[in-house]
Amino acid sequence: TGPRRTRMTFVSRHISDMEPLPSGLLLLAALLSASRAEELIYAQVGQTVTLNPPENYKTQTYYLSWHFGELELAWTNRMSGNKVIKHENWDTALSGNSLVVKEIRQNQFGIYECNVDKKIWTYKVLRLKVSAEPPSLVLSGRTVTLVCDAEPPNSLQKPGIHWLNPQGEKITQATHRVQVSSRHSGWWTCVINLDRKEATAQINVTVVDLYSPPMAYTSTSSPLAVPCSVPKASWEQIKSLGLREGHWQFFPRSKSNLVSADAQRLFTLSLEEPVSWKASQTRGLTPVSDFKTPNLSLGRTLGRADDRGDYVCTLKFESGPPLSRTVQVNVLEIAASPGTVLISGQQLNLTCGLGVPLTSDLHLKWISPERTTIRSGQLTIPAVGVRHVRHRLCQCEKYVTGV
Fold first, then answer.
1. Which CATH number covers residue 358?
2. Which of 16, 38, 75, 365 is most deeply buried (CB count within 10 A of its CB)?
3. At which of 107, 128, 149 does a domain end?
4. Taking the model in full, what pTM does it have?
C-alpha cells in the first residue's frame, strides 16, 4: 500500500452536483444534517482539518471565536485583529476566519463551536479510518484486506459504506478481502453515504507483479525481443518482499507446436549488488543493458528458426507462490514449392506463416518488388520468369522475412 489521500467535498442535496475543492486540502468531507444546525466532518488521524465559519455571517462582524469544549482556540476581532491561543498538543492556525487544526489527534475529534456575536454554529468532527493489510507493497497472488471504518454521528444514524476498486467497480462491503493481481493496483475509494449525501476517502494499493505480453514474434530478418518487467517497483522494494531467486527458462516448440518438457536454463539472477544476470545456455540472447530498474527483458539482433518456443520469466520469494510469466515466441517463415531454384515457366507456390493459428490482431501480407500487396499467407506465381528474380517480402505486423 502507499500513501492515503482524501478529497474535500461539500455535498449538496443531489450527489450529482458535487464539485471537489482543490485536492491539496486534506479534510475529507462535510455533511450537513437536515435535522440539526450541525456540520458533520469526517477526517483521519494525522490529517489537517479546516473549519469554515457559516457562509451567511457578515465579514464586518465585531467578534468571532472558535472553541473545543472548554478550550478557546482562536478569535478574531474587527477592531483588534486576531489571535490563536496555544494549548499543549494542539497545532492550530487561522486562515482568514477559518480554524485550521493541523495533524489532528485522537482526542481532538468531537464538537467544535464557532461563536459569532453570541450565535453558535457547531461542527462535529468524526473519525474515519481507511487501512489496508498488509500496509506496504504486496505481491500478486497474496490477499489484501481493505477496511473503511466511519464513526456514526449518533446512535440512530449509521453511515452506509462501500468500496470502489481502481476500475470503478462497486464492492458493497466496509471490509473487503481480495486476492490481488496487477488489476488491483492503484487507488481504492471508500464511499460513505449518510442522508443521501456522500463523502470519499482513498488509499493506494501497490501490487508487485511481472508484466509481459503472452505472444512475441520474430523472423530471420527481424530482431527478437522477449519482454518481461516489474512496473512501478525498484529492486530495493522487490528485495524487501523476500526475493530469493530469479531466472529465465526456454521450452522449445516443434513445428507441430508441441512444447518440449526439457527446459533450458538461460539466465539466473544474482542478487548481489549490483543486481545482474549469470549466463547459462544463453542461445545468443542478451539481457537489457540498463539493469537499474527491474526490466528483465531479453533480446537478440536477429531471430532464428529455432527461437520458436516458450520463454518463462520467474521470480521466487521466501514465502508464497512465485511470480512467473510465459512469452510464446513464434517465428515467421516462408516455404517455397517446388523450391527457390526454378526453370523459367515453372509455377511457384509461396507459403508464409508462423506455424500456429494467427490471433485476430495479426494479418499476413505479401509485398512485391513493385510495392503492391496481397493480403494472404499464400502467393502463387503461375510461370516464373526473369522479372520474378527479386525479393518478395512476407509481413506480419512489423516482422519481415524475405526470399
1. 2.60.40.10
2. 75
3. 128
4. 0.70
